């Protein structure tokens, strides 16, 4: 990604309205903090006498979730009311990262119950306000004005953004960041395609001072023509392909119900939360077992904590979630474009740097997806009964959020299926950036020439999902069923009869004992990856489980293990991560976490969707979406296909129907 | 797959009505043979004096397509009328496989223009009639009656099917096949779950005699209870998950137009053909380039010639397309279950064993898919212009066929996207079969216990697609862009400035000179696979191309190279195949085809979708669909994103829209 740009002279920045506090009686234990609670948290932190330094800048405020056993035993609202509600706060004051836990159970008797200083490497996310302020520092800086003058540009012609400087071996005590600028004049909205090349500022985003300045070379300003993607600029004529308009109509209304943050649909029930860092958080997903008439839990929680440690060149190795925040960066969804007409939507709340609640409207949508797919079907063409066809069309429920971080748009879908599957889809979209100033590594051109003078650099995208699986209970194991070929030896029939076959394959069942054993590069030998509950078995004795099915985008990082971006983002090869991303060093992730036992424990899966992106001209000036996905699918979780006892659709002749002639 | 079953005493078999011949003036050169033409072909073959043996059994009749240059220069109907129309026929007579080419240009002056005998190994597809007849052979066979008696079964309780015996090293002169039987009594439609275990007949399907008989052991008959999948048997109560009914409404009507066999939609135009062996054949697919205002061809032809050489045990290594025929096995689609209400459909014609045309109704459908996806989007959150969001929702066009071969249902989708992509999706569905009689190989249980006494055996599915690519012309090359990591050495900046980075990756561009070089196991080193037209370049000099993107289901065969099923289906590791599948040996595929040059030639891609299937209980008694796919996506084919000059949807405020506040 590239960060949002800030005009040097005037600030045009989308700031959602800070709203008045609202009361929300009896929240679910996992409900995000309400505006009332967020406001109360701010008061408590500001009133906390042990931190006297001012200003206090709020970088993160979110729910400090109760322990899982407490949540699991207090799921109804009345019971939940007796659980304490606590907030976790990361704030900067006096050059330190403070962590606060605030009890907000009783908003009239608030208190900070815990306070600490984070003294490891890494800093919290940038606040919007400091990005705006840092982006404007160049304004009164004479060398910058001279740089513009040399290029024939006015101050109003450029906008600047804060780029995380990442980590290259040196632990900085200061919150330094790079500021780079782009031409915003010329009438195109595609600023990122027009960099102010050669100019880099190093700034202290906290003290708001310029630490270093470099104007390496005055390249010519890339032209604006052909870069805009807005309809009003691309046409008329609009001679691009326009399919016929269509809309999904649900004669009996929506099939799902939203009660607070709980969504109920078909055989699914789950909680949709929101976090300013992780964005959408799905919790307590349970599927109904029609045969057993039981609700059975599949996962406790899933969200996207880390996202896109893009491997570009030099310091461009961003970690969007940890550095800029997915929740903060979620954008209002556009009806009938970002989602179909039959959707419902939800709002979210985060805090500004001053700790005040900000409402983000319409950032999560929920809709039923009628894609024309088939859940199961069969045609029986012979037998004593007339020929039959049975078909059950597939309808799914999608929970969607779109996150925009600078030039990148991520569409994050969670798709629930009646067959018991949860499919997670990450759809990437980005605007091409003009990288003619690629100058760090020059063995080759390092990218594709996608337009005149515009090289789009090769890069990777890694999106890591955090899945706290609870397959029919909290104690689970991770199984690797490797598919093993057997050649020549071992091929025989029990009956003793000779068999002409010379090979076959079978399955090697292995339980991962430790986290280290649970690390899998899915591009290795073919294997089915299962999460099972070893204490629950089906009637015929199989361990109850779910299977992880990658669906494209299985790239893993090709960087050297000793390269700095790789050390920070070691989960792109190995799949675990920590909390302080910005300028983090990687010490808080893999190394400490590999020896813990994961057999028959409350395990967490970190799954990384990966894409190597070799750009092409179709990616200019704004690329068509590409996607990666994975699916969690029942594997001996149900006694049989859970859709067998499903009524055929409507009164249509589509099911149990005969065709052709018998004779 | 398992073959369709035939009742021993009474035939219940779906035979579509043979219809009267119709005239069809001025067909497109690739239009399938009309009923008039099929009828005429039969007359010509029967009148051909050099083949006197009777009966003549018709196994295949299809269009003998004109040479590609002729087709390409005769695409309008008037011009096409001057091209000869020819049929290709495979028929059996006098124990030989005859091949006829029949000129049907003038149906009043028909003639066989060529006749030959196929003398290599392998036989044509089974006809429906000989399967029915062979399935009934056991009826009057005393040992079979005794076998039934020993199990307490009546003749009316069982149905039998013809199983290809495949090839295990011995070239048979006779068309032998195995016949196995299933219990059709007991009120369940799930016959395949109830095998008549231990009983196998070896029959000559042409002479209709039993060659060998074996009743190894009398297992108990598996129970019928719990195996049925019909709504009337599964409920009430219907307590399975039923999403709300929904339907796609298109206020301005369908967006596509079907003119004969030509489909036009959005920026696509293509021809939909039908073949009794290959099923749906998509030809002459061209995409409109809005910037250049040109129609540009992407592929000449795509179809599924070989399908599912299932790796099970011993002889169960079926090749559905070659042995049973996808076109013949296509089933009438069920409205609003197999496809949405906004679809149109097409019929197909094949011939029966007597050579007479048979109409297959409603076997191909075409519909616009409104899945709620996004083609491209961007939110711009800063700049001198008010914050903007541009979104283009994604609508695609699907061409679908469902093929049922015994216990398998394949849904074959071709999905056309406005971004210029063609996505091919193969959705598998099968009914569990009761494999308690697994007795050929017993090192392990070789499968999953999916219900009481029911082991579903491990197996593979391979579906091979034939793609005659014409990327902006017929002469194309195949490029492998391997992603190569560069560690430590070679990491430097041109400016001479030190860089802290220790690794990066780049792309190694390789052109495949020969077919052997073009064979790729996509599970190897990460690589982008491109098909380019080296003689056509974009304005900035990139070769015009398309990229092949696998989407799941990338399994390759794990069988030994010297195992017989692998020798026949060598394309499951290597990707080429021949024409005579049934009892074929593999001599007509890879070996002879690997040395031909493919650089800057009219190349054909054989792409194999592969799935290792480790069954689970959810697959019983009928499994939810699983799928594999691949996409052909423009890669420097267009000068830029082809959807840039696309009008936003309707009059909605979804595009070029602002949100939030600026200030």
Task: Describe the protein in words.
Chains A, B: Residues 124-221 form the Copper amine oxidase N3-terminal domain. Chains A, B: This is Amine oxidase. Chains A, B: Residues 1-21 form the signal peptide. The structure is a homodimer of 663-residue chains. The first copy, chain A, has helices at 35-47, 68-72, 77-80, 128-135, 142-150, 231-234, 320-323, 326-329, 564-568, and strands at 6-7, 57-64, 86-93, 96-103, 111-118, 158-164, 176-183, 199-204, 209-215, 247-249, 256-259, 262-265, 268-275, 279-289, 294-307, 344-351, 357-380, 388-405, 408-417, 422-430, 447-451, 454-457, 459-469, 477-487, 503-511, 527-537, 543-551, 604-613, 626-635. The first copy, chain A, is mainly beta and 663 residues long. The first copy, chain A, folds into three domains: 6-12 and 126-229, Nuclear Transport Factor 2, Chain: A (Roll), CATH 3.10.450; 35-118, Nuclear Transport Factor 2, Chain: A (Roll); 259-635, Copper amine oxidase, catalytic domain (Beta-galactosidase, Chain A, domain 5), CATH 2.70.98.20. Chain A has a ten-stranded antiparallel beta sheet with strand order 16-17-18-19-20-29-27-26-24-25. A seven-stranded antiparallel beta sheet of chain A has the order 11-12-13-14-15-23-28. Chain A is globular, with a radius of gyration of 27 Å. At the A-B interface, strand 1, helix 6, strand 10, strand 17 and strand 18 of A face strand 1, helix 6, strand 10, strand 17 and strand 18 of B.
């Amino acid at each position: 990604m590239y960060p949002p740009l800030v005009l040097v002279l005037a600030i045009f920045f989308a700031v959602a309205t800070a709203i008045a506090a609202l009361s929300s009686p009896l929240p679910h234990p996992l409900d995000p903090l309400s505006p009332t609670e967020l406001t109360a948290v701010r008061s408590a932190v500001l009133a906390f006498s042990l931190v006297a330094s001012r200003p206090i800048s709020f970088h993160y405020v979110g729910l400090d979730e109760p322990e899982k056993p407490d949540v699991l035993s207090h799921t109804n609202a009345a019971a939940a009311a007796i659980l304490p509600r606590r907030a976790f706060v990361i704030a900067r004051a006096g050059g330190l990262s403070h962590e606060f836990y605030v009890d907000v159970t009783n908003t009239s008797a608030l208190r900070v119950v815990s306070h600490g200083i984070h003294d490891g490497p890494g800093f919290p996310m940038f606040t919007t306000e400091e990005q705006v302020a840092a982006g404007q520092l160049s304004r009164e800086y004479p060398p910058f004005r001279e740089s513009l003058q040399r290029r024939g540009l006015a101050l109003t012609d450029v906008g600047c953004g804060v780029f995380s400087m990442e980590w290259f071996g040196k632990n900085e005590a200061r919150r330094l960041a790079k500021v780079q600028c782009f031409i915003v004049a010329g009438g195109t909205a595609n600023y990122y395609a027009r960099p102010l090349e050669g100019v880099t500022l190093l700034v202290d985003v906290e003290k708001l001072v310029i630490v270093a300045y470099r104007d390496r070379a005055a390249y010519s300003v890339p032209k604006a023509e052909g870069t805009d993607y807005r309809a009003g600029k691309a046409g008329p004529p609009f001679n691009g392909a326009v399919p016929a308009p269509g809309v999904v109509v649900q004669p009996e209304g929506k099939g799902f119900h939203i009660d607070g943050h709980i969504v109920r649909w078909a055989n699914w029930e789950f909680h949709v939360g929101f976090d300013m860092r992780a964005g959408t958080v799905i919790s307590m997903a349970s599927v109904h077992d029609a045969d057993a008439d039981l609700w059975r839990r599949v996962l406790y929680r899933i969200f996207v904590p880390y996202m896109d440690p893009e491997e570009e060149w030099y310091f461009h190795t961003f970690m969007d979630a940890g550095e800029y925040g997915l929740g903060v960066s979620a954008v209002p969804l556009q009806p009938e474009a970002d989602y179909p007409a039959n959707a419902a939507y939800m709002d979210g709340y985060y805090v500004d740097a001053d700790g005040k609640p900000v409402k983000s409207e319409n950032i999560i949508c929920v809709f039923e997806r009628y894609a024309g797919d088939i859940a199961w079907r069969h045609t029986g063409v012979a037998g004593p009964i007339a020929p039959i066809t049975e078909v059950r069309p597939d309808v799914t429920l999608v929970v969607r959020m779109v996150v925009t971080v600078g030039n990148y748009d991520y569409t994050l879908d969670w798709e629930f299926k009646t067959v018991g599957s949860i499919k997670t889809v990450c759809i990437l979209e980005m605007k091409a950036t003009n990288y003619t100033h690629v100058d760090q590594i020059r063995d080759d051109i390092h990218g594709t020439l996608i337009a005149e003078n515009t090289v789009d650099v090769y890069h990777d995208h890694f999106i890591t999902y955090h899945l706290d699986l609870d397959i029919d209970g909290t104690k689970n194991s991770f199984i690797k069923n490797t598919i093993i070929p057997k050649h020549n030896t071992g091929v025989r029939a029990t009956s003793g009869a000779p068999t002409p076959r010379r090979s076959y394959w079978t399955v090697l069942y292995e339980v991962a004992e430790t986290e280290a054993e649970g690390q899998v590069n899915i591009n290795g030998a073919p294997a089915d990856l299962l999460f099972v509950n070893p204490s629950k078995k089906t009637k015929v004795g199989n361990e109850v489980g779910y299977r992880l099915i990658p669906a494209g985008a299985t790239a893993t990082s090709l960087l050297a293990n000793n390269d700095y971006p790789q050390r920070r983002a070691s989960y792109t090869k190995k799949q675990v991560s920590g909390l302080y991303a910005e300028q983090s060093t990687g010490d808080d992730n893999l190394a400490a976490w590999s020896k813990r036992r994961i057999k028959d424990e409350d395990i967490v899966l970190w799954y990384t969707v990966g894409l190597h992106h070799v750009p092409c001209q179709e990616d200019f000036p704004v690329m068509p979406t590409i996607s990666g996905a994975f699916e969690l699918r029942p594997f001996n979780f149900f006694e049989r296909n859970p859709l067998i006892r499903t009524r055929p659709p409507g009164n249509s002749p589509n099911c149990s129907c005969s065709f052709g002639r018998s004779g």
